[in-house]
Amino acid sequence: MGIRHRFIPLAAALALTGGLAAAEAAPALAAHPASGQSAAGGTYLYFNKNQSNPSNSRLYLMKSIPNAKDKVLAKYRAGSGNGGRNARNECASMQGWLPNGSYRVLAHTERHNGGARGINGYAIHVQDKVCKNGRTKRTELFVHSEMNVNGTQGARQPGRDNPYRWDGVRDYYSLGCIKLTPAHIKNLFSRAAHYGWPKRLKVVS
């Protein structure tokens, strides 16, 4: 969509600690890893969309275990979709949540600069996806939060929503991307650097 991206290599290291969940049983739907992961025993992202409340979905960092159930390395509340009547319509560009399926993780950066009202700071870019109607391509898809380019929070703007500041649960709404709180996406970057950066995202509902 004409936005210039500046990414760091997928192998970049970041040493932090913390997170919602580190080692627990894999969610039932994640028993089978994303395509191409199990043979190498690598990591992948797994987004489980919540039909009753898309803004209260879950994003998992998973490790595939050959010949066994995959392991949850971390999990986070996440949202996808704008909260409106088309929030569950994967073919509604800039409104609905991500289409189900497997995505390549293209790159990640801690300093994405999306321009005016664009995505800033920590961001994971995933491939475009054609939705289930076979025609509509969803583009500019990211896992991201609301922050400044340098990862800090924007100023509070009474009576207005600052797109560069996390103000509350309504900020889980998105134009189709996957959104996390600033603390959670930073933790995800930390854990991905520790366990190995995922090359795939799997989306289910």
Automatic annotation (TrEMBL):
Chain coiled-coil ranges: none
Q: Which residues form the signal peptide?
A: 1-30
The superkingdom of the source organism is: Bacteria
Q: Where are the transmembrane segments?
A: none
Q: Which InterPro entries match?
A: TAT_signal (IPR006311), Transpep_catalytic_dom (IPR038063)
The reply to whether Transmembrane figures as a keyword in the UniProt entry is: no
Alphabetical keyword list: Signal
**Listed name of the protein:** YkuD domain-containing protein
What organism does this protein naturally occur in?
Streptomyces lydicamycinicus
